[in-house]
Amino acid sequence: MQSMANRIVTLFAAALAGALIAAPVQASETLRVGKAVPEAFSFTPLDIGIRKGFFKNNGLDVEGSAFAGDAKLQQAMASDSIDMALGSGPALAFIVKGSPIKGVAAMAGPPLLLAIVVRPDGVRSVAGLKGKKISVSTAGGLTYWLVSETSRRQGWGPHGIDIQPMGAMAPQVAALKRGDIDGIVMDLSNAFVLERAGEGRILVRFNDLTDFIVHVIYATDTLIATRPDAVRGFLKGWFETIAFMRKNKAETVAIAKDVIDKDADIVGRTYDEVMPMYSDDGRFKSSALKVLAKSFVELNTLPAEPDMSKLYTEAFLPAK
């Protein structure tokens, strides 16, 4: 009897093992996410979240990509090349112009990651920027907005500085060295590299723009309508990544330096400057939205202030 019982147990165990092998493994859902530019530290949470498994833990297989500015990013979403995007706050204006997307999280507040960099022997003060050629990544995007706003705040109107959209960073740096332009709006890691090499000097920081939304996470209307849980899963993974980054500087720097191709010293300095700007909950601050709405008119981006409530939603943010 005991032998028969043992055989039954053995056969049951083998059948169970076979069933487990045959059962399909629940696959992660693919989500295509784009970054406005490849070289900015501010977008490295995407790469860190992928490498540390925060998105995978929320059921997502995230495929990351990068573009040459907000305009290219918007085109990718409109053509269904990506599902979500890490872009700028000023890019909310693209929605008014018909871009089929919506802001789903206020990713970061003041633009702590950016600076206007000039040649070492170039412009000496903000007042000296009038009429100077300053390059940006794309027309209508964040870097363009910041230069226009700098001009406006100096009393020159939105076009007192000659803004030159030039796409990727490498051609902009080459143009600065040749003397074709007078300055560049760039992220701090690149600015620190130029300063260390004696090839550039930080002239303007934008730390005083406290009522601001420098970065927004966007989702396409199609994704929101057909796969809302993917949006929720991504945002949950995103804020888990931000929490990890705040507590783990060394590991964050180790990953980020490979992503943006800078050494640990440069990335460590950038980490210290940039981390305070990230939002921990993704909520859209009403005073910051008002600044953006007003700026769209002042900078001739839109003819009138839009109803900002139609440009974003907080419905997919993790519960407080």
Description:
The chain is α/β, with parallel strands linked by helices and 320 residues long. It is 42% helix and 18% strand. Helix 2 crosses helix 9 and helix 10 packs across helix 11. The radius of gyration is 23 Å and the shape is globular. The N terminus is likely disordered.
| Name given to the CATH architecture of the largest domain | 3-Layer(aba) Sandwich
Poorly predicted ranges: 1-5, 7-25
CATH fold description of the largest domain: D-Maltodextrin-Binding Protein, domain 2
Q: What sort of overall outline do the alpha carbons produce when their principal axes are compared?
A: globular
Looking at this structure, what is the CATH superfamily of the largest domain? Periplasmic binding protein-like II
Overall strand count:
10
> Total number of helical segments?
12
Which class of the largest domain in CATH terms?
A: Alpha Beta
- Fraction of helical residues: 40-55%
> Which structural category do the helix and sheet elements fall into?
alpha/beta
Estimated radius of gyration: 23 Å
Q: Which sequence of SSEs, written as H and E, runs from N to C?
A: HEHEHEHEEEHEHEHEEHHHHH
Biggest beta sheet attributes: 5 strands, mixed
The N- to C-terminal Cα distance equals: 60 Å
Beta-strand share of residues: 15-25%
Mean pLDDT: 90
Strand order of the largest sheet: 2-1-3-10-4
Please tell me the total number of domains: 2
